[in-house]
Write a structure and sequence with these properties.
The protein is 66% helix and 3% strand. Helix 8 links the parallel strand 3 and strand 4. It is built from 49 helices and five strands. The N and C termini lie far apart (77 Å). Helix 46 crosses helix 48. One of its GO terms (molecular function) is adenylate cyclase activity. This is Transcriptional regulator.
Length: 936
């Protein structure tokens, strides 16, 4: 299906286009042909719409589906009008392919009907738009055409930009035009894919203006007149054509050398042409200019009973577009509408809005017109605007809600209930939700200049603090002032201390301080009867206590789960449910943890809470990974990572978790890349907690890849970071045994034993059985290095059995793998069968490859006693021995990497260790050792 809305422009527009536009038109066309997107920008009247239409007609034949939207300034306040233009005719054919939450969100946005959860989470709608474009693109290329991008309603613009930034290789291209006075087009590029071409349409030269006028029939003009037109128009083709039209209609054209007897701005030209229409036509056009989406039906409802004849007269004069646009009445250029509206007397503008306040069908539009028709304060108007803001908020358009809230505040009497400042603060909170933190901060600061009510002041301070995001250190001065304004009110103090808890964690990295502030906030909220804040504070306290290994964590979790629960936080990703899940997972209760997080994920999806869905999807993947279901964990982790990248939520957390899953069940090189990506982003954000978690993922991937030195370097940093943060529960990151194992491999058994001893003390105190079993596995390697082989075998056997009973399938398999390596000095073809079976059951492919490689028989024993160098060759670790054997066969580093499923860098690092252990300097020496072995 191809959706077209009068895209194929008449051929007459094409010569206008190429006049002075040949090079840029060719560049834009080339970018479109190459699969890219294009943004045309320039001042009003410069010809952007003409170029846009011509490019659309030129390229649309290559697209299966063509979607278009074109807005005006009067429409920009209504949410999702542009979205309706784009998707209104195609959504039915793909809606059945959308998840239920996305389908509901999209239907609510397009129709304004039905239950919507977007007030809680607008991400469902964002993902719905992205899913629709991807579904359309699956059937063939899609071209999205958007004219006058600057007038797109903020809700639609945000959705378009969200989708554009995440399309990747999806065959969806955007062709847009936007009005800019200078070079300020960068922020409009956010609505297009990252590699879009920005094309500025510059003013025409005098020669080009002359050619344009000739083509439009304004011929025979003196050269001096053409020069004056060029100067007066500034090279703007629309202005030049209007000046040419005015000259052609002027019975007394100016003499050569005389100034033009015409205005020098489009507004003046519009007013000049308006003199040719009746007062009734003027009123009809004014109503049309004030309307968001004027139609003949709307004009009739607004009292313009002769709208057909009056709009026809305006179209004949070039004020309205003559091309059919369906039922919509559209001005020939947005500037005409804007100039008409701006020049109308204030009384006439208010009358037009008053008529539209009853004629418009959309309640948000009616409320806006009512406000613009009213001067001064009016409690009924204010209430209507507040209700419209609530509807916009529920539709997932917080930016519109903020603007309507400010209008409501403006019309609220000083003694109104709620008061004007209360409505301003609601608008500020909507602005934060919309990401307009500067607006929110400005509103809050404005309220603080005059507000005397403590509740309003504290609420304003909370807006200031929330607007700071992660940069809480920048608003340190707000905390003591907020505390002073809160006075002795426990409810207000609870809000401040909850924010202080986050400050302690984010700014200072101090878990103890964060815990104390959260506990205090919970107590204050309980005294005030604010259950929502109490639950959030208790959940925060419980999670910090869990990570700290604090003995009160179970009690705090029970308090957070006690009834009554607030539905707004029951399945929130920072709510009590998450705290309970984390405790279950760290306490080895894997079955209950899976049941809990699955229920949370199901409820989040039912409510359309996409942000929470991202988090719970990742946590379910973590649970499956702990249980040894590596294939299932990898699928979930990859889904979580895709969603995180689509939504911009939890990208670091999802990347590091996917790294663990790849290292366990997928591709080790991909695991390394994801972990390094997570480390980089966490360090850029200054989040030390996630730096430690990302480094733990990197260390684990390095261990699986056979890079013991890299593992030690990464996990030593983790140990330092977690000591600084006050994290003592080893069940949180479970990196300790990996560090100990790597230390043994690099010849540091004493440090490995120290890591095990310190970690065991914490695990014993907290009753972390699985951690103790994994530490036993690592300690057995230390004992084997010391020559205590029988004790090592006994400890490994016990560890494997305990891990299997606890349900840690992958850790059980790793213990079997270590056990096989110790049972015989020279492994035979069947010694790794048990480990391979367990790895295969877990779908732990990287580990399975290692087990299969280790089971390959080593070269036959020489009859004579080996030379010292040959003894050293036998003493190499399994991975080192495999690499050395392949070098002996003449394999290159790249060939070795491919055969062992490791990276070239890992091969190089392994060879360095081989050289050091054997006391040699090159690959040639390894070959010589092999030759010496064969001659014995």
């Amino acid at each position: 299906m191809t959706v077209r809305r009068d895209f194929e422009e008449p051929a007459r527009c094409r010569p206008d286009l190429v006049i002075g536009r040949e090079e840029l038109f060719a560049g834009a066309r080339e970018r479109l042909a190459d699969g890219g997107s294009v943004l045309l920008h320039g001042p009003a009247g410069i010809g952007k719409s003409t170029v846009l239409r011509a490019l659309t007609a030129d390229y649309s034949g290559a697209a299966r589906t063509v979607l278009r939207c074109s807005s005006t300034e009067s429409e920009s306040h209504l949410p999702f009008l542009a979205l309706a233009d784009l998707l209104g005719l195609v959504v039915d054919e793909v809606s059945d392919r959308l998840p239920a939450a996305q389908r509901t969100a999209l239907e609510s946005a397009l129709t304004g009907r039905g239950e919507s959860t977007l007030q809680r989470d607008g991400l469902a709608l964002r993902l719905a738009v992205l899913s629709v474009l991807r579904a359309l693109a699956a059937e063939g290329p899609v071209l999205v055409v958007a004219d006058d991008l600057q007038w797109l309603d903020p809700a639609s613009a945000e959705l378009l930009g969200f989708a554009a930034r995440r399309l990747g290789d999806t065959p969806v291209q955007l062709l847009c035009a936007v009005r800019t006075d200078g070079q300020e087009y960068d922020h409009h590029l956010r609505a297009l894919p990252p590699d879009s071409l920005a094309v500025r349409l510059n003013p025409l030269s005098r020669t080009q203006v002359s050619a344009l006028l000739d083509h439009r029939g304004y011929t025979g003009l003196p050269r001096s007149t053409v020069r004056d037109i060029h100067r007066t128009s500034g090279g703007n083709p629309l202005f030049a054509l209007e000046l040419g039209r005015a000259l052609a209609e002027d019975p007394t054209p100016p003499r050569p050398g005389e100034p033009l007897h015409v205005p020098t701005s489009l507004r003046a030209l519009v007013l000049s042409r308006l003199d040719m229409v009746s007062a009734e036509v003027r009123r009809t056009l004014l109503v049309a200019s004030a309307g968001a989406r004027p139609t003949l039906a709307l004009l009739h409802a607004a009292g313009r009973h002769n709208a057909e004849a009056e709009t026809a007269q305006a179209a004949a004069l070039g004020l309205l577009a003559t091309e059919p646009e369906g039922p919509t009445v559209r001005f020939a250029h947005p500037l005409i509408s804007a100039a008409l509206y701006a020049e109308a007397p204030a009384l006439d503008r208010r009358a037009a809005h008053a008529a539209l306040s009853t004629a418009a069908s959309d309640p948000i539009e009616r409320a806006r017109h009512l406000a613009l028709a009213t001067s001064g304060t009016d409690p009924e108007v204010a209430a209507s605007l507040a209700e419209a803001a609530a509807q916009a908020r529920d539709r997932g358009a917080p930016s519109v809600a903020a603007s309507l809230g400010l209008l409501a505040a403006r019309h609220t009497p000083a003694d109104g209930v709620p008061g004007p400042d209360e409505r301003r603060l609601q608008a500020a909170e909507d602005a934060i939700t919309a990401g307009e933190v500067d607006l929110a901060r400005d509103i809050a600061r404005d309220v603080l200049t005059r507000a005397t009510v403590p509740a309003d002041r504290v609420r304003a301070w909370m807006v200031v603090i929330e607007a700071a995001g992660q940069a809480l250190g920048d608003v340190d001065a707000a905390f003591p002032q907020a505390l002073a304004d809160a006075g002795e009110d426990p409810g207000l103090l609870a809000l401040v201390h909850y924010q202080l808890a986050w400050r302690g964690l984010v700014v200072q990295g101090d878990f103890a301080q964060g815990r104390e502030e959260a506990a205090h906030a919970a107590q204050l909220a309980a005294r005030a009867g604010d259950r929502r804040t109490e639950l959030l504070a208790l959940a925060f306290q419980a999670q910090t206590e869990t990570l700290m290994g604090h003995p009160d964590a179970p009690v705090t979790i029970k308090r957070a789960l006690r009834e009554p629960q607030d539905p707004q936080v029951a399945c929130h990703h920072n709510g009590p449910g998450l705290a309970r899940f984390r405790w279950l997972l760290m306490s080895d209760q894997l079955t209950e943890a899976r049941t809990t997080v699955t229920a949370l994920l199901r409820e989040a999806r039912r409510r359309g809470m996409v942000e929470s869905e991202v988090h719970f999807l990742r946590l379910l993947a973590e649970t499956e990974l702990r249980s040894g279901h590596c294939g299932r964990a990898l699928d979930l982790a990859r889904e979580s990572l895709r969603t995180a990248r689509d939504t911009g939520i939890g990208r670091v957390a999802s990347a590091l978790l996917t790294s663990f899953a790849e290292a366990s069940g997928g591709d080790v090189d991909r695991a390394l890349a994801l972990a390094r990506e997570a480390v980089q982003h966490a360090e850029e954000e200054g989040d030390q907690m996630y730096v430690s978690r990302a480094l733990a993922a990197l260390g684990h991937a390095q261990l699986v890849a056979g890079d013991a030195e890299g593992t030690v370097a990464s996990l030593r940093r983790v140990r330092e970071l977690e000591q600084g943060l006050g994290i003592t529960d080893p069940a949180r990151g479970r990196w300790h045994a990996d560090l100990a194992e790597a230390l043994v491999r690099v010849g540091e058994p004493a440090e490995a034993q120290d890591v095990i001893a310190v970690t065991r003390a914490h695990a014993l105190r907290l009753g972390r059985e699985s951690v103790l079993a994994v530490l036993d596995r690592a300690e057995a390697l230390v004992r084997a290095r010391r020559g205590e082989h029988e004790a090592a075998l006994s400890q490994l056997t016990s560890a494997q059995d305990r891990l299997g009973k606890l349900g840690y399938g992958l850790e059980e398999a790793r213990a079997a793998f270590a056990l096989a390596a110790l049972r015989t000095h020279r492994p035979g073809p069947t010694s790794y069968d048990e480990a391979a079976r367990l790895f295969r059951r877990c779908r732990a492919l990287p580990w399975l490859r290692r087990a299969e490689a280790a089971a390959v028989p080593a070269p036959a024993e020489p009859v004579a006693a080996p030379a010292p160098a040959l003894d050293a060759l036998d003493s190499l670790a399994s991975m080192e021995r495999q690499v050395a054997a392949l070098v002996m066969e003449g394999a290159t580093n790249r060939e070795i990497a491919a055969r062992l499923f490791i990276s070239v860098k890992t091969v190089e690092a392994t060879l360095t260790r081989v050289y050091r252990k054997l006391g040699i300097r090159s690959r040639v020496d390894i070959v010589r050792l092999a030759a010496g072995r064969r001659t014995k």
